[in-house]
Structures are given as C-alpha cells and as structure tokens.
Amino acid sequence: MHKSSASGPDSRKPAAGSTPPFFNPGLPFWGSRAEFNRDPLGFYLKGYLLNGGLFRTIQLGQTYHVLAGPEANEFVRRHSDLWDYALARAHFRENFSDRYLPQLNGTPHQGKRRRLSPAFEPATLMRHLPAMSGALERRIDGLGGAPTDLRAFARNVVTSMTSVAFMRSDLPPGVDDAIALFEHDLLRGASLGSLRRLWYARPSYRRNRDHVFAAIGKALAERPRPAEGGPPDLIALMLPDDGSDTPPPGPEEMVHDVAMFYLAGSDATSAIILWAMLFLARDPEWLAELRGELGAWDPARFTGLAEFPKLRATIMEVERLRPPFPTFGRAPSRDFEFGGYTVAKGTPIIHVISLCHFMEDVFSDPFRFRPARFIERPESARQLGLFGSGPHTCLGQPLARIQETLAIAHIAANYDVAFTERPSLEAKFEGVTTPLQASVQARLVRRRA
Ligand code: HEM
Description:
By secondary structure, the protein is an alpha+beta fold. The protein contains 18 helices and 11 strands. Strand 5 and strand 6 form a beta hairpin. Residues 101-102, 113, 260-261, 264-265, 268-269, 272, 324-325, 328, 353, 386-390, 392-396, 399-400 line the site of protoporphyrin IX containing FE.
C-alpha cells in the first residue's frame, strides 16, 4: 500500500530565512482536507517522505505547519513548556467551562490534573472491572442475537462501562446516542478552523449538548451510594481538595469534566474495539491463536495483560494500525527552530502523533495487521504515539486500555461476529479514524462452550 523509508528530516539544511516546503496535493487555496480525510493514515506520511519533519499544508483555506516523524515527536516531548494549550484548544473553551482540563496551561493544569488523576490509577480501575464487565455483558444480552450496527454498539458499550465505573449506574436510554452525537459534532467543529463558530452556533448542536449536560448533571446528583465494603466510585476520587487545585470545582465544572470522560471513550476507545472486531474477523488464524490463549476467559481472574501476551499484542496492533486521532493541533507560545526553520509564536501546527506507526524502519511492513510483532519485540509498544506525550498525555489511557481489554477478550472468546456484508478494512477520517461504511452490520453469535 504505502512505502516509507528511513530518511529523516534533518539531513537537509534549508537556506537561512527560508520557509518550510508546501505539501498540498489538494486545491490551491482551499487545501487538502478531503485528501487527508480519505487517507488519514497515509496522507502525512507522503508529506514527510517528500519534505522531512517540518512542512506546510493548507486545510480549509488555513495554512498549517506540520510536525511529523520521530525527531518531531522527540522535539515536542523535550519542549513541553513551548505549547500553548489555551490557544490550540480554544474550541474546548467555547463548549465547556474555562477550567476544562485539555485547554489549561501551567500551574492551573498541573493542579487540576493532580486532583483528577487518582480516578485513573490502574489499580483503582481494576476494582471496577467486575462492574464494567457486567455492563458489557448486559449490552450484548440486550442485542438478543439480532443484527446491529457495530459502530453504535461499541460506542454504547464503552459509555455503559464508563458510567458504572464513574457513577455506579448506567445513563437513561438514549443518552449514549446523544453523547456520541455531541462528540462527533464537537470534533467536526474543531476541524473546521475559524468556521467552527458557525457550526457550534447551530441550535440542534446546542440543544443536544445541553441535553447531555443536563442528563449527566442529574445522574451525578442521583448517583447511588457505594455498596458496603465496595470501592468508592471514581467521581468520589476526583473530589478531594487539598487546595492545590483552585478554585475547587463547582457543579458546572464537574458536569463538564464527567462529560469529557464520556465523550473521549465514546469515540476513541470504541473505535479501537470496533477495529479489533474487524481485523480479527479477517485473520482467522490469529483469532484462533488468541482464543487459545484466552481459554475460558474470566474477567474476575484478570490481573493484567502480562499474562496475556497475544491479547496485549492484538490491542497494540489495532492501536498502531488505526489510531483514533492520527494528528493533534498545537500552537507555540514563542518562536522556535526546528530542522533549520524558524516557526513563529502562535503558528497553527498539526502534530502527526502517529506517523511512526507507519514508518518501515520503525515497524516493518507497517500497513499489515501482524500482532505477533509485539510478541517478538514487546518494547516496540513504546513507539506508539496515539495517546500523545508530555504533561497533557491522555489522562484516560489506563481506562481506555482496560475497557479495550475487557471488550476485545470477552467478544473474541465467546462470540463469532457474523457480518451482514464482508466489511472493508479501509479507513477514513471523520473526527476519528473510522471504517468507510456508514454502518457495520453484524450479529454476535454465541460460540459453543
Ligand atoms: C483509545 C482511546 C483514547 C485515545 C487514542 C486518546 C487520545 C488522547 C490524546 C492524543 C490526547 C492529547 C494528548 C496530548 O496533548 O499530548 C488525550 C488527552 C486526554 N484524554 Fe484521551 N484518548 C483516549 C481515551 C480517553 C478516555 C477513555 C478518557 C477519559 C475517560 C480520556 C481523557 C483524556 C483527557 C482528560 C485528556 C486531556 C489531558 C490533559 O490535557 O492533561 N481519553 N487523549
């Protein structure tokens, strides 16, 4: 499919004062958004191979500098104080409280992150494994063996698992679909540059967003008390205030934070679960090996992925091949130099966080589904960039990994996925890396014990 080579960006030094080259295979002034959406995994790789780790592109009429490749990742990681999150993530402030975590900088960000972090400790999340597993099984039982759209199914499974861990109960029927729509529209708006304000001003968008906030606010107020001797829910762990996070969270901030956790899982975690079902269905040999390892999968006995190398390798390979967000927006808080070019403060930047996933010299035969590569070289998981890096690295990664594990293991061990039509493995970008088909119809058929 695509070919990559080892050539890095810093081998060619530009003349002083020159600007990074353009990679813009789309329309002259409007740019290459459609080309990216059609080929989200290969588009920036082509730009990198032609131009190196810093180039420019146009998207919807706006010029962006693109940072891509291992040297760029290292540069971004080493200069974590360079990035202005309030500027790059202004779209979040337009939709949520001005204390919304991803758009905070410096000390306010550190204080708030410290307060939220206990809810995402792996050991803490493991205590909620039985509840999340129960939510997954209820969702599958609810299908009654009928055909369903696996995209919506995966989203709703993740929403239910998140709900029981954070609030001990599921949200009312229909709120999961409203959350999925909110996230879809939120990300769509974020990709529209300055046109996003018009998009977010649509009454239908605002109505749905407010409906989600109201439903979460009600669920928060009414959440059941912990059972005697049971673990505290994750919300309780986010509340203690040692004074390091000021001001302490008010009711609106709490609702928006909890919405953030639902939204992130609804789109991104569910995409990994969906892609895993698709890849496994197309690789019966690996599926058989995985099933051999899972045996009679029992989540109650699960203590970590170390005991399940094939399951771990499956998850890593799906995350590698279908990173939900291949790129992330950044903005520098001061001028900086990279690859011999100077980039001015405030320049809109696209950071291709997952480019290494598709570089031949990082992962051989990179466009092929071959989970065994993570058994041969377990340490290569360190090259995965899908959760970002630095002080803003994904807070929800441990939760995402546990939910992916539960869903992929339970479905692979106990169900055959009978697709109505043979699904394609081709991807497009729609706020998240997603299959080409608008819906992926299939039945989950219980395997004989
Ligand atoms: C496969 C699933 C997921 C992927 C690929 C993903 C990816 C990302 C990425 C790329 C970032 C930005 C990192 C950076 O700026 O360097 C991020 C931030 C974040 N993610 Fe995730 N995420 C996922 C699931 C989740 C889940 C399930 C939650 C919560 C329940 C979550 C909560 C967050 C939060 C709160 C931030 C902002 C952190 C901060 O600014 O300090 N994510 N995520």
